[in-house]
Amino acid sequence: MMVQLLRGCQHGLSGPTALLAVLLTAVLLGAGMPLPCHALGRGGAPVVTPSDLAAEVRRYDGQQVTLRGEVIGTVMRRGEYVWVNVGDGSTAVGVWAPARILEEIGPGGGYAREGDTVEVTGTFHAACPLHGGDPDLHAVAWQVVEKGRAREHRLPPWRWGIAAGLVGAGLVLTAAATGLARRG
Amino acid sequence: MVSRQDLATVGYQTGRVLWGIAALMVIPVVVAIASREWAVVADFLTGMGVALVGGSALVILCRRPSGRVTWTQGMLTAGVSWLVAMVVCAIPSWLSGHYGSFGDACFDVMSGFTTTGLVLIQDLDHVSDGLNTWRHLLSYLGGQGMIVLALTFLARGLPGGYKLYVGEGKDERLLPSVVHTARAIWVISVVYLGLGTLVLGLVAWHEGMPPYRAFLHGMWVFMAAWSTGGFAPHTQNILFYHSAPFEVAAMVFFVLGSFNFGLHHAVWTGNRRELVRNLELQAFAATSVTLSLLVAGVLSARGVYRATVDLFRKAVFQVLSAHTTTGFMTVYPTQIPGQWGDLALVGLTLAMILGGSASSTAGGFKGVRVGLAAKTLVHEVRRLLVPESALVVTRFHFFRDFTLEDRHVRGALFIMGLYSVTFVVAATATVAAGYPVAHSLFEAASATGNVGLTVGVTSPAMPWYLKALYVVVMWAGRLEFMAVLVLLGYAVYRRRLV
Hints:
The complex is a heterodimer of chains A (184) and B (498). Chain A is α+β, with helices and mostly antiparallel strands and 184 residues long. In chain A, 33% of the residues lie in helices and 30% in strands. Chain A contains 5 helices and 8 strands, in the order H-H-E-H-H-E-E-E-E-E-E-E-H. Chain B has 2 domains: 4-257, no CATH class; 271-421, no CATH class. In chain B, helix 14 (279-302) crosses helix 18 (367-385) and helix 17 runs parallel beside helix 20. Chain B is globular, with a radius of gyration of 22 Å.
């Protein structure tokens, strides 16, 4: 994992610059000032959500970013790579990653489960030349920051009672209406 | 004026439509059981129960009316049954917990029925298979028409049923009997459903989805494509699949869906020359090519895409999606005004206003009216250029040969005028709600033309009155105004009820 992250740092901030950024952030926070930009992820890339990228594709075009969000839907394998869609509830971004990412992430989120929350570092393209002009993120490093889990959908018994009662009443009334119609 | 007999007919037919909706809810129940979504089963059983109780009550109270269905009854039934169906169909959607309010659920149901595709659903990526099936089924059903469905299953026929059919925005009689016409429409649609689900499902499977997911996604996307609805099971819409073959397959089906059912029937029965001679298809081809070149030219000038093939892939897909009033997207909503620019926005807005074909699942002005307007323009110019004593005759082909007459022009311009007024009202209200002018024009064109493309105006956070207005605009646009005007006329003059 660390090797992958370090590989992701090659286009990011160097050690002293990152240290300076951390110190500056601390000073700004201490002074009670709002941060002028996104927090920095590992390797110095700004941490963004899928909504941030979708809202400002031109701003982030060609930039190294750390995308944070939930893996959603089916992860689709394409040869040695996979498409992982990372969402935040409002929108999602397609992440093009080596297939070995599947060793670490679980199934994508859907009705039955929350997907893993991941931080993926890579280059964002507003119009990827490799993928037909689609907006996407080419991953170089990733980590699971929170494992996915099953979603509860327990229904109180009274809801089943109402459903059964309505269907029963509906069937009786339908039979009555059909009978009346037959008698003219 | 509207009589009690009219109201009884409307009530009786609306009751039967509700029975049909109860029967349709079996489909999402089956999918929910297959996907082991037990809470979703309860949601749909509740909706089914309400539909059965409501439908039976209306049928019992109104009893079967005697005599032929009149024009007033046909229009009123179309208008009322769509509104009642919207409320009943929204019950399982609302119970799912994915909507901020019951009104939001109604908005999405009307958006589906009218094959618009604008959505207020929240957390779409966690929606159940059952609810996704329901959303797409409503869109598929709305495209063919609920009343067309009801007519299909009326074994003994319905005297005057043609008026119900016209009330739903369709007027092409494929066969002498309207019941046979309705059945022909459903046969065409169901055959394509099988074919489309198979093709899109196989592509999705090839692109890395497991078989069951591929089947569901194939079915959902086909339903949204054929009905020119534009719903999708994920927030990214078609971008989710990251697949050129999937985009191409979806595009083929939504273009086919936007064609007149009469054209499908003509081709199926061996009349392939209609493909070349049909005025509507000629108009569609001309405007599609022109607008695709315009948008592609803008994207090229702005340097948005490096490869020409990517540029055309994006431009043609979005123009055809807008023109057929489908609303599928392969870019983020904010990319259109932000990255593509205002001129591309104008091109797409124009495409949405022009719309697909008459008697199809599409919305907008419709190709035949655009073609007639163009013919009229040429006709008038020719008349000015020849001596006053000369007789200028203009002909056009629309399933058969016609000579252009005033009544053709009047009919086309009347509906185009109503569309334009509705579009201006929706756009003005959107601007008044605080949205930018270009965004408001785009979103209003999308709602009026039953398209579904968005630049981000439509969201759960939009003002409630704008949501309500868009529901009315989508409903009126889909029914092509006549049913809505009759309903409004009834509301205004109900005191004169005899």
